Every structure is written in structure tokens, then in C-alpha cells.
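Structural prep section.
Before we set up the soaks we want a predicted structure of the protein with cobalt (II) ion in place, mainly to decide which crystallisation condition to try first. Input record follows.
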Amino acid sequence: MTQEIFNHDLIQFLHRSPTPFHCVQNMVNSLEEHNFVLLEENEPWSLEPGGRYMTSRGDGSIAAFICGDADIDNATLRIVGAHTDSPCLKIKPEPERVRGGCNQLSVEVYGGALLNPWFDRDLSIAGRVSYRDNQGGVSSVLIDFQRAVAIIPSLAIHLDRDVNSKREINPEKHVVAITGMTGEDDEFSFRDCILEQIEEEYGNIDIDLLLDFDLYLYDTNGPAFVGLADEFLSAARLDNLLSCYTAMRSIESARPGDATCILVCHDHEEVGSVSSSGAQSPFLIDVLRRLFPGAGQLDPGELTRITQRSLMISADNAHAVHPNYADKHDHNHRPVLNGGPVIKFNASQRYATNSETAALFRNLCIETGVPVQAMAMRADMACGSTIGPISSAAIGIPVVDVGIPQWAMHSLRETAGSRDAYYLHRVLQAFYNS
Ligand code: CO
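Run finished without errors. Recording the C-alpha cells verbatim:
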């Protein structure tokens, strides 16, 4: 696959994945096209060596794997991990507010979102809706309004003269989306709007009552290449859909030998990973325990033998140096866009990388001719984290934390280099094939 096709598909993937649920659905569709068979976690599995499978949990997490040929005494794992969620605004369960002649939706802030960029954007709504059918059962569907249905206007500078030096954003008061004008006689019901949207997307399905929803605001402005020579890729949710997509393309095109290849993309990383499907859940280990046919249920000793000869690459975007704020980086650790994937180091183990796992990743970069960079925070600044240390602590597997460099992490419009995702793809492909 050329970089051009890879990037073209990346843009489609970003655009069609406004929520983790849509991300997982798109991954299932793409993996199915590459002969991965969807397994349900609540059913028995029968796996064949060389077989390609996937399973999802909670609609927002997914694991795909190719079973290796090796027996238990020689089995190894090549795992790539990423996360499907991004900071955003989540609509509250009873969100309607009517103020100043406007219908509004109140939201909660999901994850560590930069709030400023959410103002003056043409926002849409997407997510999952659960309903009661006419037989009394409960089902869910994904919806995506796709068009701009909400906006959060800025306050005019004339009404806040200090805005450029002292702006403070109170999410409860200021980040309330406006969806329309209040009608004369009809009361604003968000649930009625959802029902109309379901009908538009699915026709007349059997709904007795709308029960609950996980719905999120997102920016309708699609991804774009930016720069006089298209050096940049600008989009929402690059952190971390870019890694999900890149790892997915890598396992799809993998031709592994003896090793078992796994891709795991977790939901809820941006809120701490504690959930039934997040990186702190047993999702990955539950998959590992079912992986080796013939061995039946792996006992803990066998699993330890396997994990201790294996490697996990945790892929999550890194902070590129921002030319207007260059002093926010240590002078010798300033990853640049289009400079290749970044190995993330942190002495306090906020990243799971150590010299041995970093060396293995560096070696893959040498073998594939891909440039590689290193990142450590300034010693006087706190460090972020990701799923790497969590998975490493849960399973005891050696992990290297890497990611492609980007600007404006956790903005609703982030910027990456247009060459880096493909660089990472080449390395992950080599990893799966090694
Ligand atoms: Co991230």
C-alpha cells in the first residue's frame, strides 16, 4: 500500500469515526474485508493456527489477532496497543435547557479537553442509543447526525474586553450547546430529535421507548492536508485514532510466521482506563487466555512463559515541539513533525519504555529505514501517560511506548505530519512479521 492510499484511507477513517463506537464499527468492517472473523466474547471460540479473528467489548474496545503456529513452548506475542477515545463533550442524560429564546444541550467534559477550540464550530452529534422494543427487549443502535446541529458561540470581545489575556471557561455555564430557537408551543425534547434521527438512519425500526444514550458533540469540519507542500494533516481525534488506524492497517497486511499477532484498542484511556473495557480491565488478558487452542485454558505459568518472551508496542501520539513554544521541550528532546515515530521515556514509569524495549523498537526502525526520535519531558514539568504502563503492569509484558508527533493534543483540531503515520505503519508491519 502506498503512502498516498494509506493517507487517503486514514482521512476517511478519521472522518467516519466521530466516537469510539464508530471507530470500532469501522475497524470491524475493515478487518472483515481482510478475513478477520468476528467472535463474540459470550460464546465459545474455536481457533485455528494461522486464523484471523477479532472480538469487541463494550462497543468501544476491540482486539484483533492472528494465531501463531508455534506450540506453547515456543509461542510469542507481538502486541500493538492504542486507544479509541478522545477528549470531547458528552451530552448529559437530561440535557435540555431553554434560555434566552434558545434550545440548549448541557454537556459534561470527557477527558482533558482543551475547551477554547469548541467555540464557534459547526457541531454535530453522534454515539449510541439504547431503546426498548415492542417485545420489551433492550437493543442499541449507533447514530450520527453528520450535519451541523449545534454551536457554542463565543462572547463578543466588546462584552469581555480582557478576553485575550484573562479568559476563564466554566464548562457548566459557558459550554452549553445551542441547537435552535425555542418554538411558540412545542416543548424542546432532545429524545424526540434522537428518535427522528434513528428513523432517518434506520427507517421504521421497532422502538417502543427510547431509554438511554451515550452521545457526543463533534466538529463537522473534516480532516485536511495543510501546508504549502501538504506537510501536515489536520483533524479531530488524531490522538489516538491515527494509531488505531495505523495498527489496524499493519495487522491487516501482516504475514506472520510463528508469533501470535494482536492488536488491542481500548476505550476510556482519556478518563483513566478504569472500566469494563479500558486498559485496566481484564479485556486483553481474557483474550490471551483463550488464544492457544490445544492448550485449553492457559494456566498462569504458561501465560507467564509466553509474555516473558514477547513485546508490546503501545502507540499513542507524542508532543511535537511547537515553534512558538519551543522552550516547553527539553532542548535535546524535541520531536518534530515528519521526523518519524517517537520513543517516549519517563524515569517515573509514566511511560513503560526501558532501554531494552526501546532498543527493540529502534532496531525495527533501522531494519525498515524509518527515522526515529526520542522524547523525555523537561525535568521541571509533569508527564502525561497512556495505556503502556497499565498493560505492562497488568500482564507483566515488556512494553515500549511510542507515538507519532503532533501539535495541539486534546484540541478538537489537532495537527500531525503527513508522513509519520505511514512511517509508523512500516515499523508495525515489520514488528508483526518479525
Ligand atoms: Co492519547
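Observations: Residues 238-252 form the longest helix (15 residues).
Flagged for discussion at group meeting.
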